[in-house]
Every structure is written in C-alpha cells, then in structure tokens.
C-alpha cells in the first residue's frame, strides 16, 4: 500500500530493539525499516542476531526492550497467534506436517482463518501451478514422497497460501544442493515480482544475499554494521569487518583505486642488446608475444623490439643483434600509479604494452591490453569472470 505522497509505506519498523539472554545481548539497539514490496536480507556470522531479529518480528521470540511495528501496529499489542497467521514464515527445516498431504499442508493457515473449502482448494491448485507442480499429481502426495527441493517449494507455497503481505524466511534454502538452491532463488525472485510481497530473509550466504536483496543488513554482535543496496555495499563497505565478510573477489572498485602493481605482469619477456635475431625470434614464439623489452644487466630499460622490426632484420639476413632494431620506449608508468592513467597512456600512445619502471628506470613489470581487459573483469567487477566463463560454456554447449 503506497502512502499519499507516492512513497512506499513502512511494513516493518524496529526502534532500538534489544534481546538479552541472561547477561548477553543477542540483539542490541537495532533500528530497521522495511518498506512495502522490499526484499531485505539479514546476513552475518553465526550468533550475530539475524535469526533472533526475524523471530522477534512475529513474536516467536519476545524482545527485551524497544518497539517493533508491523503495518504501524506495535506487535505486543496484537494477539501473537493472529499476528503469525497474517505473516508468512519459511524455515530451513521446512516444517511440513508428515501426516498431512501437500494440499493439506499448503491450505493449513487459510483453513485456520476460516476460508471456505472450495476457495482453499482453488488457491492450492493455483499455487502448485506457480512452481510447475501439476495439482492432480502433487496435491495428494505426502512430504516423504517429495525430494528436498520439492518439499521446500511446498514450504514456500504454504507461506503464500493466505496471501500475506509480509513473509519471513530463515535460511530457507540452506540445506539444499547448489542447483536446486539456485532454482528456488530464481523462483522466489519471480514470485516476489509477481505478487509484490515484502520479504525479510535471513542467510549466511553472501552470494545469495547479493542475488536476492533490494537491501542488505550486515549484522555483527547484535548490531547492524551496514544497511545498503547490494551495489552500494560492494562499492563502499563500511569497515574492515564488512569488507572481510564480503570477500575481496566481490568488492567493486573504481579504477582510480586500483594500482598498477596489483595488475602488472611481473615477469615481462625481455632481451638484451647483444641477443641475436634467431634467439630473439624463438623467445617471442615461445612466450607468444610480439614485443621484447630490452634491458641491461641491472634491468634498466633500454628500448623495445617489435615483431615487425625483428622480421625485417631476419629478411635482410646477416649476423645482426637486437641493438640495431631497438626502438626507444616513449612511455612508461610507475607501480604506484592507477589503472586509469595506464589505460589513458596506452590509448594516447597507441601502445600495445606499457613498461612499469622504478625511479631508476629499472623494469619491474609490464601492462598489456589483455591485462587491462582482465582487470575490468576480475578486479573492477568481481565474479564477472565467472559470469563470462559460464556464458561461454552455455554458448559452447
């Protein structure tokens, strides 16, 4: 339901909520707002308070202090049983009743709410078709006759059966194999879009959080360390804890923050002035490069020899040395400069390679065009390499 000013209404609100067990805080002074249609993920290490927070929303756990509101009503002013019947709830253990059929499990809450039988049966069939289950096949089955993934689908459908506006999910896919888990994540995203449900979701899996969430709440020792949309979280981790929890491979970085030393090739293919043409040609073939960086005995950069210059020398014949075909190096870069400068220098000078040198002109490494492309994929957009590789695998298959 949208408010009069066009913004989404607040479905869940926590104000300075704490939960204390004996002398230990499970949750401490937590503030959080979840808006209508929003998918909010609570994530953090074991014992950070994420599941306790979820359970306090539907009063499976009572908060020690603070206030919790669901659609503007303080939950402690509501009958807890009626409150829970209005909120969908999905847990990792699924919790299907083994003596009830699939249909009976799904229609459990609508039946408790007094929904007529014909309407319940129609709703069950609609929901089964949503996840590709033929009602005539599945409605009469028992949980023991279903796979783990099928059982979890039924658990999600049961949470949707009474058409609740708010759904709480506590690591619902944690016990499933990776393929089934990804399928259910995709189904959940689709169902959320179709029905515009408000979802509060607990997970310990950062990849799952990044895939599903509109906003992610990173928790530590009962507190919210950072609450941000996925991209903001990746671009600007609040502190070292968040950065470490995300993992270096996921963090989005601006090119100006990536130094040359992080991406340069530290073993450039080099030659010396007195190296013969045949030896140089063999070395270039062996390393599959089209340039040789010429250095002296102290690794000071003297010049560069291209494959074109080398081939010309070979055609002309004679016992000639690389010194005769060496060209001056017009542009170099230092290790501490950033990738943006490296890319600009290579573009402006139409350079295929960019030598990296220290203050004494000693060669420390080299940047190639391939290096820059790889950096864009692997450093600036983490996990992009996996996406590209997987895409290629699909295309090839």
Mean pLDDT: 84
Estimate the global geometry from the Cα principal axes.
elongated
CATH architecture of the largest domain: 3-Layer(aba) Sandwich
Output the CATH class name of the largest domain.
Answer: Alpha Beta
Low-confidence stretches: 1-7, 383-397
What is the percent of helical residues? 25-40%
The CATH H-level homologous superfamily of the largest domain: P-loop containing nucleotide triphosphate hydrolases
Number of domains: 2
Summarize this, please?
The protein is α/β, with parallel strands linked by helices and 397 residues long. It has 17 helices and 15 strands.
What does this structure look like?
The chain is an alpha/beta fold and 397 residues long. It folds into two domains: 10-251, 3-Layer(aba) Sandwich (Rossmann fold), CATH 3.40.50.300; 260-375, CBS-domain (Roll). It is built from 17 helices and 15 strands. It has helices at residues 50-57, 80-85, 102-106, 108-112, 117-130, 135-138, 148-160, 178-195, 206-212, 230-235, 240-246, 260-263, 277-287, 307-316, 339-348, 369-380, 384-396; strands at residues 10-21, 24-35, 39-43, 65-70, 73-74, 87-91, 166-170, 198-203, 215-220, 223-228, 270-271, 291-295, 301-306, 353-357, 363-368. Strands 6-7-8-3-9-10 form a six-stranded mixed sheet, sandwiched between helices. Strands 2-1-4-5 form a four-stranded antiparallel sheet, covered by helices on one side. Helix 8 links the parallel strand 7 and strand 8 (198-203). Helix 7 (148-160) runs parallel beside helix 8 (178-195) and helix 13 packs antiparallel against helix 14 (307-316). The longest helix is centred in the middle third of the chain and has 18 residues, at 178-195. Mean pLDDT is 84; it is low at 1-7 and 383-397.
């Amino acid at each position: 339901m949208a408010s009069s000013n066009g913004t989404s209404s607040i479905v869940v609100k926590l104000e300075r909520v704490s939960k204390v067990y004996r002398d230990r805080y499970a949750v401490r002074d937590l503030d959080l707002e979840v808006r209508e249609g929003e998918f909010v993920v609570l994530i953090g290490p074991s014992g950070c308070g994420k599941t306790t927070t979820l359970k306090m929303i539907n009063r499976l756990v009572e908060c020690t202090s603070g206030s919790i509101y669901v659609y503007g009503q303080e939950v402690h002013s509501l009958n807890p049983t009626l409150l829970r019947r209005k909120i969908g709830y999905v847990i990792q253990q699924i919790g299907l009743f083994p003596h009830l059929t699939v249909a009976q499990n799904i229609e459990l809450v609508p039946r408790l709410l007094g929904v007529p039988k014909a309407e319940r049966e129609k709703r069950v069939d609609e929901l089964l078709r949503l996840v590709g289950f033929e009602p005539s096949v599945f409605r009469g089955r028992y949980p023991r006759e279903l796979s783990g993934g099928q059982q979890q689908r039924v658990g999600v459908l049961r949470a949707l059966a009474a058409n609740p506006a708010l759904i709480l999910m506590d690591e619902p896919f944690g016990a499933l194999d990776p393929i089934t888990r990804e399928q259910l994540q995709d189904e959940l995203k689709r169902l959320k879009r179709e029905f515009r449900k408000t979802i509060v979701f607990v997970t310990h899996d950062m990849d799952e959080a990044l895939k599903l969430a509109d906003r992610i709440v990173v928790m530590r020792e009962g507190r919210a360390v950072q609450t941000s949309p996925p991209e903001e979280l990746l671009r600007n981790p609040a502190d070292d804890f968040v950065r470490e929890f995300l993992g270096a491979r996921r963090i989005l970085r601006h090119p100006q923050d990536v130094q040359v030393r992080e991406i340069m090739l530290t073993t450039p293919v080099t030659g010396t002035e007195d190296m013969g043409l045949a030896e140089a040609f063999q070395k270039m073939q062996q390393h599959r490069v089209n340039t040789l960086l010429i250095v002296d005995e102290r690794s000071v950069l003297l010049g560069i020899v291209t494959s074109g210059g080398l081939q010309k020398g070979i055609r002309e014949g004679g016992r000639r040395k690389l010194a005769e075909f060496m060209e001056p190096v017009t542009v170099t870069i230092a290790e501490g400069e950033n990738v943006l400068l490296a890319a600009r220098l290579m573009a402006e000078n139409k350079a295929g390679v960019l030598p990296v040198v220290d203050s004494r002109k000693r060669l420390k490494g080299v940047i190639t065009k391939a290096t820059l492309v790889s950096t864009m994929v692997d450093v600036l957009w983490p996990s992009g390499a996996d996406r590209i590789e997987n895409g290629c695998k699909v295309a090839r298959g």
